[in-house]
Structures are given as C-alpha cells and as structure tokens.
Amino acid sequence: MKLPRIVGVAGTNASGKDTLGHLLAERGYTTISLSDILRHDLDEQGLPHTRENLSHQSKKIRDAHGDGGMSKRAIDMHYDKDGLCITSIRTPGEAEMIQQHGGVIIWIDADRRVRYDRIMRAHRGRLEDQVTFEQFAEQEDAEMTPSEQGGGLNMGGVKALADVYIDNTFEDVDSYSRHLIEQLELSA
C-alpha cells in the first residue's frame, strides 16, 4: 500500500507507533506526536507529565476546538510539508480529521504483556510509564472506550476507523521495521 501525504499512526501504548514514525521521518515526512504537543502544553503550565494531566489537557483542547482539534492543530502547523505523520491519535475525531484531509489511519497493536515489558525495558523516562502491569492494563482499558475515567479518550473508536491494521508480534525492531517497509512500500 502506497501511503498518502498525511498518515495518522494510532495504537496501543508501546505497540511500535514511534518506529513507524521514525521510518516515515527518514523518508521525508514531518512526524509530530499529539502526545508531545500535550507534554509541551503541560511544560508551559508547569505541570508534570502524568497520565491524568495528559488526559486533562487533551480534554481541554477537545472542549475548546472539537474532537479533532489536536489533529487540526498538527495539520495547520505542518500541512505545507511533503509528508506529515501524526502519531498518538486517541479520539475518533482526531482520526476523522486526518481522513478528511486525505490521510489514512494505521492502527498498530501487540499483546498487552509484551508491550508492558517493552516499556519497562526501554526506560523512556516518562512519568506516565512508572506503573504496575495492573495499573497499565486499567489505564488502557479506560482509554479504549469513551469515559470520564479515560479522560474522554476513545481509542477503540480510533481502531474502528483505521484503514490499515498492523500486529507487531515481531521479536525485534529490525524485523518489525522490515515488515513495515515491505507492507507500506516505504522503499528509500
């Protein structure tokens, strides 16, 4: 599948979204993470990057600019680029905004325990990663369906809108990267 100018990358935590974003960046796409926008906003407010604060900030933006407000912000900031990869999509409106601009949504997933173990091994230094497996599972379940507990996020709704599904069951990043390059026709 040849990718369009705008690609939305969504999926569960530690499923391999950033790897795809890096591959697209190597091929000229500007990659922007909606989570990084939220972290930047929290930094400006002097707030820690907890899951709760990230969800609250996301809700504030959606309340002010609609469910697709985060994606619209990224598109408006970078639309003049050759390609735009938007990662960390967490609401159906964010996905729909990308699709309305001619983009596709790629959903990436992997087994929950595998993803949790990836986070623990990666030591990404993110405050929101410092949780037990049970807390990780509880947070993810809350974010998969629309609820106040999940900060109004609805990743299950994003998954339902996805144009492409990728199951990252690969043993290592190199194997996964080769699969993405082949499946998404990302030759250099």
Automatic annotation (TrEMBL):
<dbReference type="InterPro" id="IPR027417">
    <property type="entry name" value="P-loop_NTPase"/>
</dbReference>
<protein>
    <submittedName>
        <fullName>AAA family ATPase</fullName>
    </submittedName>
</protein>
<feature type="region of interest" description="Disordered">
    <location>
        <begin position="49"/>
        <end position="68"/>
    </location>
</feature>
<feature type="compositionally biased region" description="Basic and acidic residues">
    <location>
        <begin position="49"/>
        <end position="66"/>
    </location>
</feature>
